[in-house]
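Sample entry was shown:
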Amino acid sequence: MPPSADGPRSWLRESRGMLFPVLIVASVVALVTPLPPMLMDLLLAANITASVLILLTTVYVGRPLEFSSFPALLLGTTLARLVLNVASTRLVLTRGGSDGTQAAGKVIEAFGQFVTGDQIAVGIVIFSIIVAIQFLVITKGATRISEVAARFALDGLPGKQMAIDADLNAGSITHEQARQRRDDLIRQADFYAAMDGASKFVRGDAVAGLVIMVINIVGGLYMGVFENDMPIGEAADVFTRLTIGDGLVSQVPAFLISLAAGLIVTRSSSESNLRRDVVGLFDIPKSCSSRQRFCRR
């Protein structure tokens, strides 16, 4: 391969570690800098895509420790959603009166139109149900699972270490195997402790999303009626659609990430991926029926 081709590739490999810090700094800048609607569409689509990829990774991963970077990734995606919430709220409040439902970009408009359609009341009810499921079931359940898993992992750590020492003294394992098992125990305890802390951010993100939705409705009505001289009916229609679209664009990735957190924590004792476990459950009735046919013969 020519040397000129090695230059960009080696630079990309060396700069890969700077990607996450650069994204953090860009997120902080986006908090205070208005974003154009086209860039907002791109970032929202990237956020949803990243959430889907994270969920698929948790489904196909063999053990939770193989995805040990998940707590840090959870914090990063939470920060990204909060930044996008602030940026979209700025667009809704500043441009909703003049640009209508296209104020915050095509993605938010499409989500709002898809749920509400021609009936705002039906859209509000469906959106409220989705938010209730996300906040009361998924987020709360994932938080509780993380707390219990971290508690049991830390409480069982001394007993597991004593079991490793007993196996080592009995000659069942070598010193290298004992060292590897101790390292796995420490990594497992650190992982669940980090998940316990990161799950609090997910719950706080859900609460912040509810507050931002209220701000969009109340602030949008004020800006539309008093600042842009819109009729109150038109202002309610425009800003309700924008609020529902903005809320769904935020809640859908949060739902996927919370589901991924619950899946990866509940599979603490599994050595195979979730797809194989589910397929194995469907294979059990087949094996039972085969044994029954054999006994009848």
Q: What stands out?
A: The two ends are 67 Å apart (CA to CA). Residues 175-227 form the longest helix (53 residues). The CA atoms of residues 48 and 253 lie 5 Å apart. Confidence is low (pLDDT under 50) at residues 1-5.
